[in-house]
Amino acid sequence: MGAYRIAVLPGDGIGKEVTRGAIEVLQAIATRFNHQFEFQYGLIGGEAIDRAGTPLPTETLDMCRQSDAVLLGAVGGPKWDGNPPHLRPEKGLLAIRKEMNLFANLRPVKFYASLADSSPLKADIIQDVDFVIVRELTGGLYFGKPSGRRVENGEETVVDTLLYKREEMTRIITVAFELASKRKKKVTSVDKANVLESSRMWREIAEEVAKEFPDVELEHMLVDNAAMQLIRYPKQFDVIVTENMFGDILSDEASMLTGSLGMLPSASLSTTGPSLYEPIHGSAPDIAGKNKANPIATILSSAMMLRLSFGLHEEANAIERAVQQVLTSGYRTADVAKKGQRVVSTKEMVDEIKAAI
Ligand code: NAI
Ligand code: MG
């Protein structure tokens, strides 16, 4: 077996710290299972703006396209907040998603018994929660044109556009059904069909796709209700499929079911090239550079990479088991620690997970 080529884009802020941790864990896997991972590094986001004058340099994109999979940290920070739209770090993220056709963002939300006391929610609500948010990632409100400000009849006006092609809706909803058919066989399609025409078409397409999966139950839910149901009774969900921005917001909300944003991994899948794996959190400028960030979201993202891009199931399980074991042993980064618990650094957490592997 040849080496797996992994393009690593640490990005900004804690992105650097958490990707370093995930790479060390992957190296531990390589040693234990006798694999070879070849890591190549690229610039994206704020640092790319500073050093290459653009949030997504061509060299980065080329390197990613030639890799077997991409591991990304996070981008952004206050330093670039005042930049014009084309020189914002997040532009790099949106661009790589679009350029690599990473349309299917899978965000598993899983309850960890040992973290039951880290969630602000009651244990009996979050116990056994196990669902996946399938977020459309290359269309919808974050990409639609026109987008921008203009003056109309002397009045300052601004527009963003929620735009989808039928095919874009069909393929993401199909991903959700395929996933549900291997799980608990239920898809909750989340939209705002009482108001938005785009959502009414989304709903129609969901009904059409559902016909091809007779063993999977389809339920429609309005996004505002979904936000409430996630807190009221999250166990009802198996697979949630939704538009780009709705999925962005609902998944941050869902992270609280596990205790922290620092716990949620994600996979951004393409059917035409390599896929990308990243934590759902951002660059966390408030804790960046302090060796405090929770690396688990990124480490679990690398496990998803092993499973979904390389078919290394046993190796992915080994990472997930190691994370479980370390949490069960009581190791906590600050974000998931309760009063009185001993807090470990990013690096200590990584070392413990490596040791468990
Ligand atoms: P954020 O996700 O970076 O942080 C939100 C809060 O969660 C902060 O208090 C942070 O300390 C905490 N947090 C996040 N990840 C953590 C981890 N691994 N361990 C411990 N605590 C963690 O979102 P925020 O603050 O709204 O945005 C900061 C910057 O990140 C902005 O520039 C934003 O545009 C960017 N961003 C980038 C994303 C990406 O690269 N995928 C996603 C979201 C935001
Ligand atoms: Mg987000």
From TrEMBL:
Chief location category: cytoplasm
GO CC term (a single one): cytosol
Pfam families in UniProt: Iso_dh (PF00180)
Site feature location: Important for catalysis: Y142, K192
Residues covered by the Isopropylmalate dehydrogenase-like domain: 5-353
Residues annotated as binding Mg(2+): D224, D248, D252
GO terms under biological process: L-leucine biosynthetic process
Entry annotated with the keyword Manganese: yes
Keyword Isomerase belongs to the record: no
InterPro entries found in the cross-reference section: IsoCit/isopropylmalate_DH_CS (IPR019818), IsoPropMal-DH-like_dom (IPR024084), Isopropylmalate_DH (IPR004429)
SUPFAM superfamilies (alphabetical): Isocitrate/Isopropylmalate dehydrogenase-like
Binding-site positions, substrate: R97, R107, R135, D224
Lineage top rank: taxon: Bacteria
MF terms (GO), sorted A to Z: 3-isopropylmalate dehydrogenase activity; magnesium ion binding; NAD binding
Cofactor: record remark: Binds 1 Mg(2+) or Mn(2+) ion per subunit.
Enzyme Commission code(s) on record: 1.1.1.85
This protein's UniProt keywords: Amino-acid biosynthesis, Branched-chain amino acid biosynthesis, Cytoplasm, Leucine biosynthesis, Magnesium, Manganese, Metal-binding, NAD, Oxidoreductase
Broadest EC class assigned to this enzyme: oxidoreductase
Cofactor(s) it depends on: Mg(2+); Mn(2+)
Subcellular compartments: Cytoplasm
Catalysis performed (reactions): (2R,3S)-3-isopropylmalate + NAD(+) = 4-methyl-2-oxopentanoate + CO2 + NADH
Binding site for NAD(+): 77-90, 282-294
Summary of subunit composition and partner proteins: Homodimer.
Family of this protein: Belongs to the isocitrate and isopropylmalate dehydrogenases family. LeuB type 1 subfamily.
Function, in words: Catalyzes the oxidation of 3-carboxy-2-hydroxy-4-methylpentanoate (3-isopropylmalate) to 3-carboxy-4-methyl-2-oxopentanoate. The product decarboxylates to 4-methyl-2 oxopentanoate.
Name the record gives this protein: 3-isopropylmalate dehydrogenase
Gene name of the record: leuB
